[in-house]
Amino acid sequence: MAVCTTAILIKDLCKEFPVPFRRETVKAVQNLSLEVPAGEVYGLLGPNGSGKSTTMKIVLGLVRPTSGTTAVFGVDSRRVESRENVGFLPENPYFYKYLTGLETLLFFGKLCGLSGRPLRERSRALLQTVGLEDAADRRLGGYSKGMLQRIGLAQALLGDPKLLVLDEPTAGVDPAGAHAIRDLILQCKQRGITVLLCSHLLGQVQEICDRIGIMDRGELLAEGRIDDLAEKKNQIELVLENATPALLESLGAMSRASGAQVVSQRGARTDLEKFFLDVTRHRS
Amino acid sequence: MNQAQNPISLSLRRVWALSHNTFLELVRLKVFYFLLLFAFLIIGSSLFTVQFSFQNPLQVLKDVGLGAMSIFSWLLGLLCTANLLPKDMEDRTLYTILAKPVSRFEYLQGKLYGVFLLLGLSVLLMSLLFAGVLAIREQQEIAELARNLSPENLPAAVAEIRAATFQMNLLPGIALILLKAMLCSTLTLLLSTLATSSVFTVLTSVVVYLIGHVQGIAREAWLAGGQASPLLKVLVAGMALAFPDLQLFNVVDEIAVGTALPAQLFWQVAGFGGLYILVYFLLAQLVFSTREL
Amino acid sequence: MKKALCIVSLLAGFGCFKTVAEHHFLAVQRDAGFQLATLSGQIRTQLGQTGFVAALSGFRALMADLLWIRAGSAFDRTEWPRMQMLLHAATQLQPRAVVFWEMAHFHMAYDAAHSMRLNVRQQPVAALRRVAELEYVQIGEDFLKAGLVFNPESAALWQRLGELYSRRRDDPARAAAAFTEAAKKPGALRFLRRMAAYELAKVPGKEREAYEQLRSLYAEGEQERLPNLVRLLRQLEEKLAVPEASRVYYQLSAPGSNGTQAPR
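Predict the joint structure of the above. Result:
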């Protein structure tokens, strides 16, 4: 059987929601077409109400499109089989409070078709991966926000998916937790798992994603590699260490002589997130 | 339509996982404990409230016990089922579940079977308490007889008392109480797939329950014809066609006073109840399969 | 729209099928002795709105018990007409409960009737007191007959009817007929055949028939050879001038009884 190299294929997707008691409709998605190759991390960005969540739900088969098609690894999203290789982490996931971390994974694992010892072993391994092995027997009602996100990620990874769909995976999570989740996503990427990521935290998207698509009012406004999209065409950044004032002066003069312009010059700064993590890591 | 293009894939293991999880969720609800506690209180207290003149205390005990079982099993099914879908939708747990290779058909089945498990357990617990209360009362009655009757007359009187307490005949009656509660729960599930709030579901379910018990009167009046106005005829016909006849499942009152329920009749009514459950569930699936989440 | 049509069609089709099926099931259940309760306006008056709704909702047995409790209060206050209405409503709700019919008839035909007879204060005229007494006896009889419509195989109700005809109507013919019916029913007590024969013996022109019944009972053995039966047999043999050779030789079933010790 030919291996499908396109993880997500969306063609001319439209979704309209009827407004109750009125003849009008709300166009949530309009003529959206995009393709996510297998193994890529794709960021779907956009303001609130842009249609990202609706698009995601259609890809997952939770919502029917008004027109157009979506396919996951070549299988129509409307079919249950399309979800066999998909893991999903919803925004602000809420699980059953009375279940422990391990029980939660066992429950979702059974839904993925796993059972018995393989399921138990996989659940424990995932709990270790997401750093929750000590909280495995604690009820989810006692979990923090970050822990809930991590257990959500673990259940998304249970079925050994080839596609991960993550909706705001680091929303409401502290920097350390967000950093851990980001590392996990990068590990998934290294393992060849395709990731579809929706997030408002553009800094994180910039670090993780290979390509992004920007939506607004149901339409895809821009799409491409981050480097290509964010690149300032006629500007170069140059970071120097131990540069003397004289060197800086001569560089400035050379630039002016060749028709270039020094736009800005300032001391380089470390990333605030890195600084925070360094401080808190040393303390702990 | 989502599921119409695929064959409905039944995975017993997934359905069982969902049922088991639903059952665990429901037994942790406060309403479950309150209702069960009230049922136990009423059944238990009937031991002490039978000091009425003219009345056979065992009869009162049976009427109270079976009445409590009937009302509480229905209430439990109603309150537990009405909030199942809205809660999952509000918490977005529904998305996490349906994002797995789980069809909406399997999801609904799992939810419903979880409720059925809960109802079965509740009716079993109430039946055990009921049998215990009857046994205690039986002993009290026999002790009273032993004090007042001569030894040669005692065995016949004791046999009469024993025959009047827990007869095996009551079991099919209790089974039909459980079946009625399951039918009402399935109907509540159907209403919740149509409704947007659990309050609306509860209210309409209560109305359907009440109408279901008088539907037989309306149906017989409609079939008998008569001089009623056209509007009344339409109303009565609507009631007959749209609502289930829940009174058909209330046979335990007569069983309690000694009427035997023929096996064939029991299986016919049980089969009919099963058909009702199937139809209501299929309707719920039809609605839910294309509902926007 | 297509799906809505599908749902409506399924509901309508199932509705038609189930209406016919439910009608059939109701008839079958009624034949088997179920679903016989009727909910009349009188019951609505007795139960009140909430109670009536409860009765409609399938709690007829409980509502019947409630009416019995109220009947008890009416008994304490000797409010016989009100008690009659409450008992009537209770039996309508639970027509298969034989004990309800039995108790209802007893309170009317005995308690209420007796109360009428003694009610000198409110009714000084003896003849009118007697009329009122007989009215309540009739009400008691009506209860039993209504109960037998729903429970035709009840030995207890037939027995009570026989007792009523014997004690309250002084009608041995009807009493004998009722006891005979009672004796045929499942669970009938042994003595009912004797009672039927005793009553039949009181009916002019039926002595021979009674005698034959008593002879066949005597022939069954010791358990039937009770003093009353033996005495009545002798009396009938004398009355009917049964030839000596055909008479039954009898033994007393217990020493010291007041029969006659006759040679075997």
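Residues 99 and 262 of chain B are 48 Å apart (CA to CA).
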